[in-house]
Design a protein that fits this description.
- 36% of the residues lie in helices and 20% in strands.
- By secondary structure, the protein is of the alpha/beta class.
- It has one domain: Alpha/Beta hydrolase fold, catalytic domain (Rossmann fold, 3-Layer(aba) Sandwich).
- Strands 1-2-4-3-5-6-7-8 form an 8-stranded mixed beta sheet, sandwiched between helices.
- The longest helix is centred in the last third of the chain and has 17 residues.
- It is globular.
């Protein structure tokens, strides 16, 4: 279908504000731009929100623990933010994580994994895996039912959620009940139809995606690793059930849909949801895109059902 009219207006308004494209920006300026896109306000009120330092792959990393109202134990979700492994932090995703925590009725652990280019691949997946291991080991103290622990993430965070699910399987790590993958990056390649069709004009560009990968990897050959490209895994058998959300006008649309199809072929329960007429990650930017808030509520409800009722593997 055509690009959603309200989304088209929002993109044109952002473009009219000026500024260089992402691929021409210095990292510090790009990070500030990303912070400026964060939703205004404090977001949902919760029982508690605590910042902590936990052991990452190399030294300590920050996490933020969100706890909903009510009596536990709750389902748990470890969330990895987007931003191309270069941008984003606990604060830029605070609003969205609060909504996820309250709507899903789950304890949510948001991970401040190390960013590139200061910390290149595989720093991010190793930190994220360490955070999942820490969460599982401390589930009782956190008020989490360890049998209902999920991973979730958007864009590069969706990549990390998919990668961590594979790491947990391959390393005999924590048992995960679900993975929520939102517009995920699943392949270090730029030759899918959506990469060409949606290369320009739809918020995330193909040139911007190359900029992210160039900062993330020390060497392009690292993109062949399944820790960077989860779609390249020999098998996806034995992974937790998944919900994969994509957007029609997103260069990464085919990344997510191909991964979902490969999960299904491996016998993994998976639901695929394409948002027609929409662009990359519009659901995390409900204050900018008219239909973003409604879509985020759909995804939160999907997570809630997976954690409350469980998913048969």
């Amino acid at each position: 279908m055509p690009l959603d009219p309200q989304t088209k207006v929002a993109i044109e308004t952002m473009a009219a504000a000026g500024g260089p494209p992402l691929e021409e920006m210095e990292v510090a300026a790009a990070r500030q731009m990303y912070r400026d896109l964060s939703p205004p306000g404090e977001g949902e009120a919760l029982a508690s929100v605590d910042n902590r330092q936990v052991e990452g792959a190399v030294g300590e990393i920050g996490i933020r623990v969100y706890r909903p109202e009510g009596e536990g134990p709750f389902g748990g979700v470890v969330y990895f933010h987007g931003g191309g492994w270069v941008l984003g932090d606990l604060d830029t995703y605070d609003y969205f994580c609060r909504s996820l925590c309250k709507g899903a009725g789950a304890v949510l652990v948001s991970v401040d994994y190390r960013l590139a280019p200061e910390s290149k691949f595989p720093a991010a997946p190793e930190d994220c895996y360490a955070a999942v291991c820490w969460t599982a080991a401390n589930a009782e103290a956190l008020g989490i039912d360890a049998t209902r622990l999920a991973v979730a993430g958007d864009s590069a965070g969706g990549n990390l959620a998919a990668v961590v699910a594979q790491m947990a399987r391959d390393r005999n790590g924590p048992s995960l009940c679900f993975q929520l993958l939102l517009c995920p990056v699943t392949e270090h390649a730029f030759d899918r139809p959506s990469h060409v069709e949606n290369a320009e004009g739809y918020l995330l560009t193909l040139a911007g995606m190359r900029w992210f990968w160039d900062h993330y990897l020390e060497d392009p050959r690292q993109g062949e690793s399944t820790l960077a490209s989860p779609l390249r895994a020999t098998t996806l058998r034995g992974l937790p059930p998944a919900h994969v959300a994509t957007a029609e006008y997103d260069p990464l649309r085919d990344d997510g849909e191909l991964y979902g199809a490969k999960l299904r072929e491996a016998g993994v329960p998976v639901t695929l949801q394409r948002y027609e007429g929409q662009v990359h990650n519009f659901f995390t930017l409900g204050h900018l895109f008219e239909h973003g808030e409604g879509a985020s509520q759909d995804l939160i409800e999907t997570l809630r059902r997976a954690l409350v009722t469980g998913v048969e593997r």
